[in-house]
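In line with agreed milestones, the collection of sequences with tokenised folds has grown. A representative record is reproduced below.
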Amino acid sequence: MKEDETISKAIETLRAVLTDIGWDARKDDETEGFIVDFDPPYIPLAFAYAAISADPEVFVFYLNLGVSAAADRRDETARFLTLANSNLMVGNFEIGFEDGLVRFRSSVPFQGTELSEVLIRNTILSAMDAVERYAEGVIDVMARGKSAEQVFHQIESAEVLADDLSNETTEEESE
């Protein structure tokens, strides 16, 4: 398959997946991408951006938070994002130091092959999972003035506790 055909097919596959998810994706006129507006109140998410890059052949997916960090909270927010990123296998959080906007980016290269619906869905799902796990913590740090380390350790402790409780329930059910 020629490069142009590969990109065209990838764009159509992306459009089909976004439609199947039930998102009202608007084609971005300037790129080979789509914008999904999550509607007010925009907390934690304002919009998503899903795009196909031709060179290199990559599908990229961004989730943009609906609040931004004030100038005096950007360093602490970046500290929290760095801690969160250290636990992620796929994707990463980013902050714009000029405007304080926070987003999550996940991507997958597909050079030499077709971009499948499964790869698109997995990329979107991994981004959604990461944002679900850390978005409230990001907001605690950037908008509620909490410490990055404190919030990060609370999230991690809550997950360990939830895992322990889940394991206890599973053990009791198997007895």
The chain has four helices and six strands.
